[in-house]
Amino acid sequence: MKVIFEHQSHPAGLGFLVKEYVQTYFTSSFHFHDLYELIWIKKSYGKLYAGKNIMNFQEGDVYLFGPGFGHCFYNEKTFIEQGEKAHAVAIFFKADFLGEGFFENAAYVRVRDMLDKSSFGLHIQHTPTPIHDLFTTLTKQNGMDELITFLKLLNEVSRLPQMDVKVLNETLSVMKLTNKDSARLEPVLKYVIENFRDELDSKTAATLIHLNEAAFCRYFKRRMEQTFSQFVNNVRIIHATNLLLTEEWDVLRICYESGFKNLSYFNRQFREITNQSPKEYRKAFRGANEALVMDNQTD
Asked: Any transmembrane segments, and where (predicted)?
C-alpha cells in the first residue's frame, strides 16, 4: 500500500502539536510520522490498519503510535451514509519535547515504558471519561496551560492498568518501509474495506493496480504475507466480531452482514482466525450468563 511520510510541526516551534479533525470521513492515506501520535476517536467507527494488522475502531478509542508506525483509519460506508462527521483529536510530539533524556529519569518510568511500547502500536482500551475530558481541554488551550494539560494526559494514560493497554503488533511495523512498490496496494486495500459486504474477487483487485490476476496474487501474497482471499476473510471476520458484541442479531444475520454467503464457511473461518466459534466469542466478551439472541444452528 502507499506509505506516506507526514510531517507535523508546531507553528510556535514547540515540541508538540494538538490537532482537531472534523471531517465527513477520515481522509489520511496509510502514513507514518517521525513523531509520537496520541489520538482520541471522539466520533467515528470503521477499520484501523495498524502496522501489519487490521481491526475495528469505534467512538471513544484512544491509540498511541510511535515514530515510524504505519497506520490509517478507514470509515465504513454505513458511517458516512449516516451523515455524521468523523471527529478526532490528535497530539503529535517529539521524544525530547521536554529536553534530551527527560523521560529517562526513574520518576517517569511509566511514561518511558509506554512510549517504548508504542513502537508496536498501542490501543488504550476502556478509557475513562477524565482522559477524554483532557483531550477536549487541550483543544481550547495554548502556551503553558496546554503543556500542563498534555503532561497530565500522558501521566493519566501511563497509569492505566496494563490489562487496559493492548499492543497491536508482536513485532515492529514493517509498513513504515518506504519501498516504492508499496504504493501499488493502496487501491486494493480501499477496495476491500469499502466493499467487503459485496462479492470481491482477485481479478477486479488486479485491475486496480494494472496486473493480470496471476501476477497480482503472487505480488499480494509476497507483500502482505497472506493471500488476497485470506485478507478479505480477515476483514470480514473483524467486522463480525464487532457485530457480535454490539448487536443482538443471530449468528446467521451477522454472517450475511459481514459479507459471507454460507454459514458453515463463516463459522469455519471465524474459528480459524479467532480460535473460537462466534457463540463462544460473544459469550467470552459479554458474559456467559447474559441473555443473548442466538441462532439455533450448530457452530
From this structure: none
Residues in the chain: 299
The pair phi, psi for residue 247, each rounded to 5°, is -125, 150
Residues 6+ apart with CB under 8 A from 129: none
CATH number for 36: 2.60.120.280
| Alpha carbons 125 and 54: distance in angstroms, whole number | 16
Give the residue numbers spanning the domain of 135. 4-167
Burial 201-221 (b: 16+ CB within 10 A, else e): ebeebbebbebeeeebbebbe
Q: Could you read off the pLDDT of 91-122 as tens digits, one per residue?
A: 999 888 888 888 888 888 999 999 999 988 99
Burial class (CB in 10 A: 0-12, 13-18, 19+), 35: buried
